[in-house]
């Protein structure tokens, strides 16, 4: 069985969740870009691309390690992101790294702290994340940093191309399901603002849980 082909039986439900997490924000110039650490090096690739387009002059890469990233990024997610952006022509002086955060709430709170320490008080930011993390990142930022104007984006890859880039379809589907659960659960716990959960998204989530995509559930 292919490790990168979305199974036909669940494709419609996966596509429903994939579309739900895309905030469809229109990009414009912002004060700072914050690249959220994860296993997805595409975050750094896209941050570098937008930097060269002139959308911002400062990047903060944030992230320590999770169990899923320690082997791939032994020096920490943010450090590897910076090195990758450097290799794509972003100068080191334009990049700040935050190396302690282990969740999205900390990504934002700690990034804000390192910017404040550097005398930078942005009024607008662009959060770059994995595609299925956009909505959660937005909801978390509105809770943690409500006064900043926030946009969210990800590498603009179609679902199948993204799965190919990660190389593990089950991992992607499980992460999609887990992030969908976190939209409601994190709001209940006070970690994020509430977000609408349309009936078709809830139904797709429930069906994917029922067939066993549960490894990333809380």
UniProtKB/TrEMBL annotation:
<dbReference type="InterPro" id="IPR014729">
    <property type="entry name" value="Rossmann-like_a/b/a_fold"/>
</dbReference>
<dbReference type="Pfam" id="PF02698">
    <property type="entry name" value="DUF218"/>
</dbReference>
<dbReference type="GO" id="GO:0005886">
    <property type="term" value="C:plasma membrane"/>
</dbReference>
<dbReference type="InterPro" id="IPR003848">
    <property type="entry name" value="DUF218"/>
</dbReference>
<feature type="domain" description="DUF218">
    <location>
        <begin position="43"/>
        <end position="147"/>
    </location>
</feature>
<protein>
    <submittedName>
        <fullName>DUF218 domain-containing protein</fullName>
    </submittedName>
</protein>
<dbReference type="InterPro" id="IPR051599">
    <property type="entry name" value="Cell_Envelope_Assoc"/>
</dbReference>
């Amino acid at each position: 069985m292919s490790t990168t082909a979305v199974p036909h039986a669940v494709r419609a439900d996966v596509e429903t969740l994939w579309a739900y997490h895309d905030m469809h924000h229109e990009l414009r110039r912002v004060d700072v870009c914050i690249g959220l650490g994860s296993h997805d090096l595409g975050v750094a690739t896209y941050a570098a691309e937008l930097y060269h387009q002139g959308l911002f002059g400062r990047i903060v890469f944030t992230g320590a390690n999770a169990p899923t990233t320690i082997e791939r990024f032994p020096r920490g997610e943010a450090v590897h992101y910076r090195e990758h952006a450097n290799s794509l022509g972003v100068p080191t002086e334009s990049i700040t790294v935050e190396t302690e955060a282990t969740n999205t709430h900390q990504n934002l709170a700690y990034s804000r702290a390192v910017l404040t320490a550097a005398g930078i008080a942005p009024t607008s930011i662009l959060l770059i994340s994995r595609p299925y993390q956009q909505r959660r990142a937005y909801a978390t930022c509105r809770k943690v940093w409500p006064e900043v104007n926030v946009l969210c984006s990800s590498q603009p890859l179609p679902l199948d191309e993204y799965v190919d880039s990660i190389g593990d379809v089950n991992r992607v589907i499980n992460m999609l399901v887990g992030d969908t659960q976190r939209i409601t659960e994190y709001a209940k716990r006070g970690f994020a603002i509430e977000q609408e959960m349309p009936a078709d998204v809830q139904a797709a989530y429930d069906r994917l849980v029922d067939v066993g995509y549960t490894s990333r559930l809380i």
